[in-house]
What does this fold into?
Amino acid sequence: MPENDMPRHNIGEGDAWAANIKRTYDEYQELALAKARAAGEHSEQLMQLGIQAVANCVQACHMLTLQAIAHRDIAVDSTWVPGPGEEGISMPEQK
It folds into this structure.
């Protein structure tokens, strides 16, 4: 079909403006949705980072507690059990 024989669609100026407005609206809506998706992904990454930080703090506190217990046990043991050449605390004998 030659180019001159192609069917033409007669759209009015109002229809052209409406189509242009719709296309512009759709483009801006797509941009807004893409930004919202990116913000959601970023928020998820921050949430995961926060959860990992809290887990690391809990683990560090647990390790410090275990170390404090070990130091306490060593201190109690050295108080009550004399080492070579040392005097320990002895309990009074019961009658």
Remarks:
- The mean pLDDT is 81.
- The two ends are 124 Å apart (CA to CA).
